[in-house]
Amino acid sequence: MSEATVASVAPKSPLSGISFRAVCLGLALTILNVxxxxxxxxxxxxxxGSSLPLFITPIFLLLVLIAGNALxxxxxxxxRYSLRQEELLVAYLMAVISNTFAGHDMLQNLFGxxxxxxxxxxxxxxQELFIExxxxxxxxxxxxxxxxxxxxxxxxxxAVGYWVHWSIPLAMWGMFFLVLTILFVCITVIVRKxxxxxxxxxxxxxxxxxxxxxxxxxxxxxxxxxxxxxVAFTIGLINGIHQLYPQVPENPWxxxxxxxxxFTTPPWNAVRxxxxxxxxxxxxxxxxxxxPLDLAFSCWFSYLFARAYFVxxxxxxxxxxxxxxxxxxxxxxxxxxxxxxxVGILWANRKYLTYAFDRAWGSNASAKGSFxxxxxxxxxxxxxVAFIGLALGAVFLFVWSHFLGIAVWASVTFFAIxxxxxxxxxxxxxxxxxxxxxxxxxxxxxxVTLLGTRAIGDSSLIGMxxxxxxxxxxxxxxxxxxxxxxxxxxxxxxxxxPLIGVFALAAVASLLTTFAANxxxxxxxxxQAKAVGYxxxxxxxxxxxxxxxxxxxxxxxxxxxWFFIGGLAVVGVLTYMRQAFLWWPLHPTGFALGVxxxxxxxxxxxxxxxxxxxxxTRYGGMDAHKRAVPFFLGLVLGDYTIGALWSLLGLxxxxxxxxxxx
Length: 662
Known about the structure:
Order of helices and strands: HHHHHHHHHHHEHEHHHHHHHHHHHHHHHH
Largest sheet: 2 strands, antiparallel
Number of domains: 1
């Protein structure tokens, strides 16, 4: 959907939506959402709503608020209490922020990480290898506290007694993550004007909540929207009933289907070896419809091209024993591609970043130019505070790294890669709204692949793996959500400074609630007993990998290096071709996404949405495309609604129910 569409739903009233009641409501939703996400994703593992670019539970909570608001408007003496669009969005944004803390790849990972090394050290002989060199203030080490953590059946009043062993690690990691959050906000403040006003990125992910809260409720009066809603809701309803009552037929094609099983003869069986799945998630088709045609084509084409590359490797013998254990080197190709995307983003924004820096320090002569969007002195202060925040945050990270035993150069490299990837993900989300699960693109892995373990050193390796939990994956990364929040607020003319305060309140409340929810829930259920979604594998990945590095070492992998360079080079070539030839169909970001982990789940959904959009625009024009948008957003809302309802039913029944995703 275009920038014009975003603007068209913006009311002209300058009234602030950051009212006291909106913040209180948002705080309540923050706590409620954290508890909901923790129960369904850690205890029962039955929703995975925080794995998606548009979170499930905040959308459902927003829908409930809108329904309550509509009911309030029907009662004359209650109309004065109805919420304005801005107030609904404040509550929604606070719930979204809570998802970034409580969801997959963030604080859920933390608990699986800090309890792992000491508990599993005896069976893995880690005591002498690295346990004594771990930063002990960051891990839970008490044997009894860990024993009952994994076994469970510990009531809350008893679990409180173990808090003394958790307080320091959680306090330290909480402080660290809040500093990361501040740095994320500072970066988004710096790039906000460039991406929202100068380049006018489309921000597809914010379309649904904006249209849902539009004054007058035109979105909910659209028949096409309700048609899409009914299709998705019915599919999820039938499949959910099938899970409870298997005699009821299901639609098996909706969720992941193993396409590779049908390729049994060489060289085609390489597809089976390395994997190929398809899905028809209604919500994914709906979201993919908002992706530009060229990027959508590039995503599914690159995914299929990677499978052709697998087949070529088997036919030519490249995946034989001589290739080593790295073939097909897709992790390295993906890492190189994403670094290439990051370099392209930084290069394209180099003049704006210089402008922002000059404006922050009052160099108005050099700041005047094509980027000058206003003369508001408050904008100068915002840039200045953001750059100061970045500087202070960098000092904190260097000190933190020192206490973890990481060399200065290794710390700079590690965090430079992490924040570069964060910037790339944020840009891709703002421009295209695509899923961004790049689980294999980790700063530590990239450094070891390019430099080897000896150059980095044991102490730095141990320190970097101690931070594995927050850079393993990027599905619920906070930074894109902060930028989208700024964009939604700009459209609604909500004050900047109070919005930062709302973000801060939501962040602190989310942190504390997430800590409490995971702590008491896991002691009651047991990390190895009833907590089905407990992220023990995060700790296993981190410290098993560290075990291999310390015991055997790893030289700079020449083959991996070449494939890394190859991924970077492909992005560079595609970038040049798009700039040189307007007709060039392949997008560099599409290649990076196509060879990434997320496309395993969504490539066929992207293909279906691309084909539908291509046909609609070709035969009906842009007017037909715009008329079709509510139908595809209805697919998203209907799928999310039935998914949320099944998860609530599962909590009530105390058993896992149907998951609309994975």
